[in-house]
């Protein structure tokens, strides 16, 4: 197996893993900064995932955002059950992946708007068949606020000059 097939040098893989781990750790911190709601799960947990999606790539961002949601659900006691929170985590990952793609390929403002609507309206709307329309309406405002805060903060951080080089580990950033 060549270095290219293995994903790069061992040092590159370790650095990538450390970057992801640090952003997951920030998600854990964000999971404890809650936006008031009936469930206690909207939080600032996905900002590191959205940031990673914009700076490192969609796969990394999706993983970090999904794990961030699971930590938030854990701190709230999995109020919607573990299977529903696993589905929600998958939706968070998709939202972060879409954000990262749009952030890099289009205007960042378009990415912010679309990801906020996907995360704040689309994801909870997908739960209507499971949880009912009442839960959707009860969560709509807190999820839109949390989504907007997470995504806007991530976009602002990702646009800081030189941040990509620092996060990606370039020596002379």
UniProtKB/TrEMBL annotation:
User: Does this entry carry the keyword Membrane?
Assistant: yes
Superkingdom field:
Bacteria
Please state what the protein is called. Answer: ECF transporter S component
Q: Which UniProt keywords apply?
A: Membrane, Transmembrane, Transmembrane helix
Gene Ontology MF term list: transmembrane transporter activity
Which Pfam families is this protein grouped with?
Answer: ECF_trnsprt
Parts of the chain that traverse the membrane: 20-39, 80-102, 109-130, 136-158
Stored InterPro entries: ECF_trnsprt_substrate-spec
Q: What is the organism field in this record?
A: Formimonas warabiya
Q: Which Gene3D superfamilies match?
A: 1.10.1760.20
